[in-house]
Write a structure and sequence with these properties.
InterPro entries: FAD-bd, FAD/NAD-bd_sf, KR_dom, NAD(P)-bd_dom_sf, Sc_DH/Rdtase_CS, SDR_fam. It comes from Streptomyces lutosisoli. This is SDR family oxidoreductase. By secondary structure, this protein is an alpha/beta fold. The chain has 20 helices and 37 strands. Helix 16 packs parallel to helix 17. The two termini are about 35 Å apart. It binds NADP nicotinamide-adenine-dinucleotide phosphate. The site of NADP nicotinamide-adenine-dinucleotide phosphate has 27 residues, from helix 14.
Length: about 775
Amino acid sequence: MAQDCITTQVIVVGAGPVGLMLAGELRLGGADVVVLEQLDAPTTESRASTLHARTMEILDGRGLLDPLGEIPDEPRGHFGGLPLDLTLPSPYPGQWKVPQTRLEELLGEWAARLGAEVRRGHRLTGVTVTDEGVDAEVRGPDGRTALFRAAYLVGCDGEDSAVRRLGGFAFPGTDAARELLRADVAGIDVPNRRFERLPAGLAIAARRPDGVTRVMVHEFGARPRPGQPEFTDVVDAWKRVTGEDIGGGTPLWVNSFGDASRQATAYRSGPLLLAGNAAHRQMPIGGQALNLGLQDAVNLGWKLAAQVTGRAPEDLLDSYHAERHPVGARVLGNIAAQARLLLGGTEVNALREVLAELIPLGHVRTRLAGMISGLDIAYDTDADADTDAGDRPEAGRRLPPRDVTVDGTPVGTAELLRAGQGVLVLPHGDTALRAAAAPWARLVRVADGGPEDTDALLVRPDGYVAWAGTSASGATGALRRWFGEPSAAASPASVRPAPTAAVPALPSVTVTATPKNWRTDMPKLSGKTALVTGSSRGMGRATALRLAQEGALVAVHYATGKEAAEEVVERIEKDGGRAFTVQARLGVPGDVHELFLALEEGLRERTGGTALDILVNNAGVMGGVKPEDTTPEKFDELFAVNAKAPFFLVQRALKNMPDGGRIISISSGLTRVANPDEIAYAMTKGAVEQLTLHFAKYLGPRGITVNSVAPGITRNDNPVFGIPEVVEQMAQLSAFNRVGEPEDIADVVAFLASEDARWITGSFVDATGGTLLG
Ligand code: NAP
């Protein structure tokens, strides 16, 4: 069946603040953009709420501050909980409190007004890089899969970024070793606490004007818990640290965050890019994460727009990674230091005392405040360019908002930047530079500086000074370096004027049938992750090979066959696939825990996350004992491996499985054909089918399908398959007069794992080669 294909220039995945900011920036630069968001409606949770000085300047530079009205400002900040005065020369020093919900609403309206199309309820399920750009497979709100095609795709989809995972971006770093529990609680009356270090831990309480109190608590030495905390966890920890009982309150939102620290090694991989928390994971201390992400978007937007509209100079797009990766690394560094100061136990007390003395010192304070507020960012704008920028301190830094004149009328630089163009501020009385810059007039606004201005400043659309100098050749060199050739700039075909009016017509999004060059032989499981239990041999092995062939990263699980499992991984890698081994004996206490420890480690190393898309419950043991010889021990072993382990594997896997995942369990034709030597075994497989039926219903709302596959007699390492007469006898049971091969089953499992099987759930698939026909 032909899929709908929606084409655009840029796909942005994620309609949080970063994605929406980027969408608006792209539209300002004249690019068509579609934003895909898996949530049906904007989140109502009040996550990040702090805007720092540099972000405030940027929002002003887009005309987005006025709609926010009066914003409460707090000049007092902190560094690792130690007081830090954030006052610096900027119109917006301090921490500005805007609930994320309000910011998202505003950015959404702005991006839509500029012509960005936001599609909610759309979940990215596959990404394929093509010669032309990127094809994104997306499941829509109706459950149907659509194809979106664009020149570039940007993941603004947060910590657990699907784009990062599907795009195979490396995401090295460290996992959380400490965590802060957080809850918004109504109906409690506790004293406000600002980073209060008590003997047993750290407590923070801040009552908002609406009466809701945000509490945060960390018990010194406590390790992060698996999964999300309950309100009772917060209540208990709060009690132990402060002695206060908040159990009578009503929790509105409970979560925890840890001090994990990771950063993508590359922010760009061909047509795929990452921005915001998709590119870096950090503890959200002092609201830096949101600010970092928004500034990623503003750095990227104008560059990517120039790229897709064909006017970008060489390497412009690559300067996104070159500029933002070091900024991200520096923020991650200061956050790691702060996390240690905040959450460390008594061992950090001496360090805190020394720092408490140092921080108020002028230089130290301004340095730290510059770091936290984002005002001290300096890009290397002169890299490899033949311009005279290098010796000017302004180059690479933000242009502090100031007044200039245009045609004799005073105007603020923030206002000049609002159309998303560059700005060239000329030295007083200049005529030569004005003439030199004339060919770029569509992309760069020209303004006159005051009498004190002896240098010209070329400011990029993101508000950073690209070049400072006096020579016309320096100016044209910098204009070329950042805005491209004047011919491209002057060509009306290559640049659409930045939209300023209310909702312009939607960008050229077209809905067509399957395009000619849409490849139908595309691997069906690209970017997916799979666990196949018992895949060191037999049909598990064949399934692992098959899933890897379809593009999945496969965890090859085994109990005793280490070498055999390693051979499976080698074989997969030789064929260009990705896999790793995971050892755990099933059917014994702690089995599932042990398996998932190894699994998550392997996934994290290779994908930066722990998402598991496909679980194949294959490992199993046969009985082969007559009813009268079946001991309770044998019975228990059969049930432990074949029935109990799959149940708890499913239960545990659901923590890692995204919506739309797949669970396939191997049953047996013996649930339909009697064989008295295998009563207990067949009973275990009956249990597997019950697991399938009931979990299918339970997981339907999440789009996870659950099915069982029943093989008949299938070749494995059992010596009986080496005896021709026995094989011949067994073959007669099948309608096709042969025994099953492991690949016969692997193909069925691969189908059930694919998007093609999205409409099948709770099903028993007879893969006995017609044995059940009688
Ligand atoms: P197999 O060749 O016997 O291999 C069994 C796999 O399961 C091996 O990888 C083994 O790991 C693993 N395993 C066994 N016990 C385990 C335990 N306690 N903990 C962890 N892993 C364990 O298997 P197969 O014949 O391909 O059968 C696969 C599935 O199909 C089983 O569920 C079986 O019941 C079912 N089935 C088989 C047939 C058939 O005719 N073959 C017919 C119907 C259904 P190690 O080798 O590393 O120990």
